[in-house]
Amino acid sequence: MAFKVLMIGHLLGDFYFQSNRVAIEKTRHIKSMVLHGLLYFTAIFLALLFVVNPDSYIKVLLGGVAVSAVHCLIDWIKVNIEKRIKNIEKYGAGIFLADQLLHIICLYLFVYLCGITAGISSWMNRIDCTEVKLNASWIIAVLICWKPASIFVTIIFKSIPNIVSQSELPESNLIRECKNEECPYRKIEEESAKVGSWIGILEREIILALGILNQFSAIGFVLAAKSMARFKQLENKAFAEKYLVGTLLSTLISFLCIGLTKCW
């Protein structure tokens, strides 16, 4: 149970407490990396306060500091590796997964070596532990399907050749010819990307909810509704292929999270 709660803290600290600005600045300035470490420590420490015995707070505090320091070290190594790789888009997905795997291993070692368990005097003793474990799994699944999955899908898209913009669509030609950042066509492209990201998030969360409720037959309607919104664009083969990759990847992530809630 402690590891599940720690995972919630990890997801909050590594993705939700970290703004896009901090994520970019930490690759350039050590101050931003330290700020990320402090926010990460705050997330995991506050999460563990709900499940550990008050007598273990000092141990959790010291262990949390160590885990946060190791977390920043892993991020620093990742930043330096990315700077040395020329074709970073090609290996971005692998680096992202390896980075998260190392973080999760560190969290598991923290729980195992420090012997973190639900304490007798904690609030866990006052409610149904089984129900809390199930709810924790749902929270983890929801958090994964939101921002982490959105970032991963974006990384995958960057590794795919940008064949859509190289197509013969007149809109694409106008965007390529427009060098000014204030260009209306470029703004339209950016807004479209944001809308597409939100569609992907809602798609994953709805599929997750339907899967948890065992309403798998209704998932087809979600995918059909998404396809209707892009019906005209799907006539372009390049766009259709990239669209299919995003849809299948989002669906796969949702099903993996459904399995997480049912098996863990």
TrEMBL record:
Signal peptide: none
Keyword ATP-binding found: no
Protein keywords: Membrane, Transmembrane, Transmembrane helix
Transmembrane segments: 33-52, 101-124, 136-157, 206-223, 243-261
InterPro entries referenced in this protein's UniProt entry, alphabetically: Phage_phiKZ_Orf197
Pfam annotation, one family: DUF3307
Name of the protein this chain belongs to: DUF3307 domain-containing protein
